[in-house]
Amino acid sequence: MSERDATPALGTRGEPASWARAGADVALQRTRWGDAAWSFLFGRDTGYAAAEAQPGEVAEANRRMRSGPLPDPVEGPFVKAPVWTWEVPLYFWFGGVAAGSSFVGLACDAAGDGRSAAVARKVALAAVLPCPPLLIVDLGRPARFLNMLRIFKPRSPMNTGAWALVAFSALGAGAVAADVAGRPRMARAAGAANAAIGGYLGSYTGILLAATAVPVWARSRLFLGPIFVSTATASGAAACRLALVAAGVPAGHPTRTALGNLETGAMLCELGLAQLNQRRLGRAARPLHEGRAGRLFRAAEWMVGAGLALRLVRRPLGPRVHHLASTLYLAGGLAFRYAWIEAGKASARDDEAVALMGRGAVTRGDALRRPGEARRLASAARRPRHNGRVGAAYAETVRRVSLVVERALRP
Amino acid sequence: MSAPTEIAIHHVDAGRMGFFTDTTVCIGCKACEVACKQWNDLPADGSQFTRGGSYDHTGELSAATWRHVRFVEIAENGGHLPQLPAGNEVDVDAAVAAMENWVFMSDVCKHCTNAGCLDACPTGALIRTEFDTVVLQPDVCNGCGYCVPACPFGVVDRDPRDGRAAKCTLCYDRLQDGLEPACAKACPTDSIQFGPYEELVRTAERRVSELRRRGIEGAYLYGAGDATGEQLAGGLGAFFLLTEPPERYGLPARAESPVQENVVPATAAAVAAGVLAAAGATAAFALARGRR
User: What domain range includes position B271?
Assistant: First the structure.
């Protein structure tokens, strides 16, 4: 595989693929795909021309072979494992810290602690800054990152997430700038708007994973978003707490107490939701226990557990233990993000689980859910897209700019 | 004919086109794979015996393999793959004697009515054409990789060297010139048939009926001819005549665009959780202040 010759037979490597009509018609061409029926076999020897099928006969045959128990053995592979590497879980974590910090900023403002709110807004901006580079590095063609914003496509969570990231970064920078310029009211407004966007930034990653054919992700669709929001809140609160300590907020200050309670509460939520989800996942839960993903989950649970324990025995050990607990929560949150991505890769390679999902027999809930019953965005009912002249011109401009950037950056 | 929806390119007078792949007449020659690679300038991706002990040496559908003839060697011999001797030396006589145990299926992108890859694509690189096929525009794709796990059939893949995703275009360039796709053209037994979708489905249904009349009770269509509500991803533009349960061919028994199936409930749950989290944060502060 690694030694294969990937030189294209025509064209230039890295150039946009293109083709052009040669001019004259192809020799012996028959119009309107008439050449598709050239074979002497077609319609004769192989029995295609037998009498019409009875109404419902084929549907019945299809139903019989596609229902019932799973044949043994199944022969995969069925779906492709995600190609995402370390950048994506790290981005999930940074985005989570940013989203959580935006919640903290909102809460600080609501409680009347403007100074802490300003620190939380700075943390949110600092956490969101590494996100775009991480996402760009993960692309197969990083120079074309602008194409993410080429269109607005509400049904693609990755597209809406990219737009949310842009809005969050812009508002976050605006809020910090307003803080620096001494405009607290503007900073508060921008921070509040950012908390609303943060609610999506911290959770859309869960939606994105749920909207795939990977069993462990798809079957956790109602839990992934809430789990990711919990991790985001806990890690954001932990990061803000450490930042406030560094900024000299004294021990016993209500904001520090509140943040400590918030991170512990959010982590307890995360653990509870994850447990609940694991129990109902049935056969699809296997990657959560086994292999690399299983080890990562256990490591994350140990870190969070240690943090919780430190919080409980805090009094005799002094304030430093609190900081250690916050750090453990942050590390545990990062491990959870890696673990979820790794679990998806393992789950996609688990042929039996994918096959069972197709038979509607992977989780206990599947048996009760009839196909087509779930609420869907049916494309069959969607009208043709009307971008308008402006939208089309914008999309085309972004495409061209991406290609120019790519050409300029090529070594 | 399903209503033309979400079509990015529209030409009057162009209808849905598709593939009908009849596995009962496939001889596993892999001519379609070669024709596809030649026409589409796809690089070779090695000849290796990878899938267990299978004689199939061209792997699976990938960014550089848009047609793949799958060898299903478990049809008759009690569910065991043949054991290849070490060193990849194949005993030709034994293989020929065991020919009866083989089923071949030329796998390809299904060009779904509800296409998961198209729903997932954040850049708009994946579009639906005037032939109701799903085509990836290589000059737009930035290689985000979301279409890869969003395909319920494991078709589309990201090329590790090129960086972009790639898949079957149903020879969009040939179709526009009135030619049939390269694989269908090359198929020596007409196992791969190409044509206007409705006509193709009727042909396939007649074939199923004929096979069942001859006593092959297991013959059925994968992706066409289903009752409404039982369709695979809303109906497949490229469908198959199979004689074994779908899982033997690496196909799920039920498939739907994962985006269409999951985005609405997942978003509802996630957004509710986001609101609750922000409320929880505010409550934690109110509590801490109240206690003071």
Answer: 257-292
Exposure on the CB side of residue B235, measured as CA atoms within 13 A:
24
**DSSP sequence for A133-156:** HHHHHHSSSGGGGGGGGSS--TT-
B178 and B289: one domain?
A: no
pLDDT tens across B214-241, in order?
888 889 999 999 888 888 988 999 999 9
Q: Residue A396 corresponds to which tokens in the numbers above?
A: 């085309």
Same domain, B150 and B274: no
Averaging pLDDT over each range in A116-130, A240-254, B24-38, which range is the top one? A116-130
Q: CA torsion sign, A102 to A103 to A104 to A106?
A: positive
State whether residue B258 sits within 8 Å of chain A by CB. Answer: yes
Q: For chain B, how many structural domains are there in total? A: 2
- Which of B22, B193, B262 faces A210 most closely, judged by CB atoms? B262
Two tokens, residue B291: 């206690």
Residues B209 and B281 in one domain: no
| B224 inside domain | yes
- Among A197, A281, A204, A272, smallest CA distance to A234 is for A272
- For A19, A39, A65, A379, B120, the CA distances from B173, given in Å and listed in that order, are 8, 22, 36, 25, 24
Number of structural domains chain A divides into:
1
* Strands of B192-196's sheet in order across: B192-196, B17-22, B238-242, B220-222
Residues B162 and B285 in one domain: no
Same domain, B251 and B264: no
Q: State phi, psi for B165 to the nearest 5 degrees.
A: -80, 155
> How far is residue A314's CA from residue A320's CA, in Å, rounded to a whole number?
9
Q: Are residues B247 and B162 in the same domain?
A: yes
> With contact defined as beta carbons under 8 Å apart, do A120 and A237 qualify?
no
Nearest-CA distance B125 → chain A (Å): 9
Q: How far is CA A129 from CA A122, A133, A258, B213, in A?
A: 11, 8, 26, 67
Among candidates A59, A203, A384 on the partner chain, residue whose Cβ is nearest the Cβ of B270: A203
B108 vs B23: CA distance, rounded Å: 13
Work out the number of other CB atoms within 10 angstroms of the CB of residue A3: 5
Question: What is the domain-level CATH number for residue A116?
Answer: 1.20.1630.10
* DSSP code for B63: T
- C-alpha to C-alpha distance for B266 and A200, rounded to whole angstroms: 12
Q: What is the ipTM of this complex?
A: 0.88
Run of H or E residues at A332: helix A320-349
Alpha carbon distance A141, B138 (integer Å): 11
**Does residue A392 sit within a domain?**
no
Q: E strands of A198-299, at which residues?
A: none
Domain that holds residue A113: 87-360
Domain assignment of residue B7, yes or no: no
Structure confidence by residue, pLDDT tens digits, B56-98? 888 889 999 999 999 887 654 455 555 555 555 666 776 666 6
- Residue B263 is nearest to which of A10, A72, A157, comparing CB atoms? A157
Cis link prior to A73 (omega < 30° from 0)? yes
Q: Give the C-alpha separation, B144 to B76, whole Å.
A: 42
Q: What is the pLDDT of residue B96?
A: 66
Per the domain annotation, does A366 fall within a domain?
no
Using a 10 angstrom Cβ sphere, with 0-12 exposed, 13-18 middle and 19 or more buried, the burial of residue A320 is: exposed
B 141-160 residues with CB below 8 A of A? 141-146, 148-159
Assess whether B172 and B281 both reside in one domain: no
| Residue A288 exposure: Cα atoms within 13 Å on the Cβ side | 20
Residue B134 lies in a domain: yes
Residue B1 falls inside a structural domain: no
Q: How far is A390 from chain B (nearest CA, A)?
A: 16
